[in-house]
Amino acid sequence: MLNCFMRIHIHPQNPQTRLITQVVAVLKSGGIIIYPTDTIYGLGCDIHQPKAVERICRIKNIQCEKANLSFVCYDLSQLSIYAKQLPTSTYRVLKQHLPGPYTFVLEASKQVPKILKTKKDSVGIRVPDNEIARAIVKELGNPILSASLPGENVEEYTDPEIIHEHFEKWVDIVIDGGIGGIKPSTVIDFTSGEAEMIREGAGEWQ
């Protein structure tokens, strides 16, 4: 732990630069945050801080190599760094749906840290339609981890005050960006070359 726990309010439409910089400094130091997305609140850290990734796995009581962790990119340009070259048809689908409440499972490039790759050498990538999450990633310069909060009672984790009470001993920052959703992202797997829905969530899919 960095022993610098904070709960900070960040404006959901116009994130304050000073506060985003503060969050990024904690991430670069190996810290863990809880942050809003366009679906549910999530646990996050810098994907290039393996000890922070391991901390998140301990919080969730899972083994990192079996966790199927995903991460948040700023846009499609950044996403393309971490996925192997996408077929034109796949790229068009991603462009149509992102930013949005989707996680796309893609073949991982060599830029993806080993701890985040699945046994199939794939990775889940998000570009959420949330200004706070994207501002953090843009300022950081690389993606942040995207992991759901532990437990099955998602309704408890829509209110940042309740999140603060539950997790202040486990994380370094809780970002209050307003009330969160209760549905996770829709997960679509493109590793076979065809779109396969793995989980139905907040994003509509046909």
Explain what the structure shows.
The protein has a ten-stranded mixed sheet with strand order 1-8-2-3-7-4-6-5-9-10, sandwiched between helices. The chain has helices spanning 17-28, 50-60, 76-82, 88-97, 131-140, 160-167; strands spanning 6-9, 33-35, 42-44, 70-72, 102-107, 122-126, 144-148, 173-176, 186-189, 196-199. The protein has a single domain (6-199), classed as DHBP synthase (Alpha-Beta Complex), CATH 3.90.870. The protein has 206 residues and is α/β, with parallel strands linked by helices. Strand 2 (33-35) and strand 3 form a beta hairpin. The model has no long low-confidence stretch (mean pLDDT 93).
Give a short synopsis of this structure.
Helix content is 28%, strand content 20%. It contains 6 helices and 10 strands. The protein has a 10-stranded mixed beta sheet with strand order 1-8-2-3-7-4-6-5-9-10, sandwiched between helices.
Please tag this protein with its features.
206 residues, alpha/beta, DHBP synthase
Topology readout:
Elements: E1 6-9, H1 17-28, E2 33-35, E3 42-44, H2 50-60, E4 70-72, H3 76-82, H4 88-97, E5 102-107, E6 122-126, H5 131-140, E7 144-148, H6 160-167, E8 173-176, E9 186-189, E10 196-199
Helix pairs in contact: 1-5
How does the overall form come out from the CA principal axes?
A: globular
The percent of residues in helical segments reads 25-40%
Rounded Rg: 16 Å
- The third-level CATH topology is DHBP synthase
